[in-house]
Amino acid sequence: MRLFTIFRIAMACCAFCTGAARAADQPADNPGLTTPNAATAAPIEPYTNERETQTFTVNADGSYTKIDEMTLRVNNEAGVARVAQYYIWFNRNMASVDILEAYTTSADGKRHDVRPEQIRDVQEARSFDAPMFQDILEKVIVFPAVEPGARVHLKYRKTQMQPIVPGHFSDFTPPDLAPTHHFRLVYDLPAGKPLYADARGFIALPPSTKNGRTRYEFRYDKAHFARLEYGSIAYVSYGDRLMVSTFPDYAAFAAKYRESAVDASVNDPAIVGLARSLTAGDPTPRAKAGTLYDWVRKNVRYVAVNIGRGAVVPHRATDILTLRYGDCKDHVALYGALLDAVGIRNEPALISSGTIYTLPDVPGYGVLNHVITWLPELQLYADSTAPNVEFGYLPSTDMNRPVVLVNDGVLSRTPSTATMSRTTDLSINVARDGSATFVYRLESAGWAAEQGRALLRMQTPAQREESLQAELRFVNLSGTATLSTSNLNATDGPLSLTMKGKLEDFVVPGTAASIPALTSFVGGFQSDARYWLGERQRTQPFVCRNVELHERTQIALPANFRVLDVPEAMAARNLFIDYRSTYSYDASTNVITVTRDGTTRFASEVCSPEDFTQMRAGIETIGRDVRAQVIVRSTLADAARGASATLSAPPRVIAGSPVRVQSAD
């Protein structure tokens, strides 16, 4: 009763407020003309960076002082969550941060100062499990009285007492993707230390030199950023960003890293002995490299500290071997020492891991955040920090990226694409009551096979059960299932899975009903179509991985079911996609067979909006086809015996209609 009363009061208040708002919106000089109501106005960005100036005073040794002064306006409730706390990252053994001024100006113009107890140093979350890197801190400023319409003001000084790379300085500035106005970056350096820049979207002012120092200034102003589209690559790969550096080119950058990575312990007897004992039975250099790769990825724990987020000098290989953990550069150092011990050439390759697929024209640690291994004689890259990636493949975050080869000091590139192949066979036997039993067999080959094995190796029994249920939920089915697999301790080759189980209410008996023309559970054409069709139009580059899929399903119906209609066969062919499906019905056995086969031919892991335009019609064909259904009619199970005389006659023979082809060159 009380809830109903509250509901009525709320509805009355809403009606009153709506009327009042409409009355208030009426212009006084024209009562018949209304302006848009706030409730129907387009959403606004959570906050606006109204003004910010960052000033770097750089010393000859690469150390610097940064003064950052900003004003952020909170536009709505979402902005409160994003602006009310501000984080400043620093390494407490190399830098310090001092808050010079911090306060909130509320919507009514009142100033609310940040008190000392509202400023705290906290350990960065990503270093909790990395004992060697617990000096990474974040200074957190909690602003009071933050509400829509308020402004937060912050001025702080960061003093980098020890340079990340002695004698050099670099700074990377990506946009916040929020409305930004009056944004200035000023770099003040000794006149004899030139600053190189790659400024895309930023306006560079002419440098000015005075009293032995040169001042560089960049300005930025942008009121609107387009929504990041589903599956798109990082904005800085194609959008605005600023990189400044005292390194003139990537050769100089590589030389500095090479110099810092020299390790006298690489020929230690413990390392040499381990490498030779592990590879004693391997007949080829590739086999030896694979054995050592598997040992490192399975025995050396990766700690989540990127190369640009702390020290850039790898630890001694002997220490890494003893401790059995390290970050990416430590993995490369130990793996490289093991390879050296068996005579396999290798070198570090600096890379941007993630969804950044391009490098700026000048080098720096803001974009280069990872290190992998290049084996020139095998023409292979290896990333031993990826415990679920088979030797010979790379994780998707390393694919199609420019790299800096440290020994040669040149730019190269990781493979542009790698194909995942997958074959599935689904057999469904429908019972008279509409339930069903099924057997689902899957074989995965290529980069996805070892990822699947690693996932299954790490699952608890509860997680295994949940994953099986998730497979069924993905295709809107419910039931029970068990799983058997090929050897999960294998480190290469295909992965085979077999799911067996029972489906509840697979089809409704006693009436005309539809049966989904499934050919796979999670993964396969249905998953790929959902991803590809995540956007109707694309204006941004997006990730596209090559697949080769072969799927087959047989649905055996009992005598009290007869087929009324099956879908049409479909095909799609264009520059990027080759796809074909078939549907058939055997009246003598009451069995429906569905096949779907297809491959993609993307030239790289990144497709352009123009590519999407060319492939869209074919993708839509696949999207419609994977939603196809078979129409059946049945009698109720308990009446099936009485109807058997009627149903014993051969049903109408139905074959798929002539294939419908969508093609484009």
From TrEMBL:
Residues 1-23 form the signal peptide. Residues 60-221 form the DUF3857 domain. InterPro entries: DUF3857 (IPR024618), Papain-like_cys_pep_sf (IPR038765), Transglutaminase-like (IPR002931). It comes from the Bacteria. Residues 274-344 form the Transglutaminase-like domain. Keywords: Signal. This is DUF3857 and transglutaminase domain-containing protein. The keyword Signal applies. It comes from Paraburkholderia caribensis.
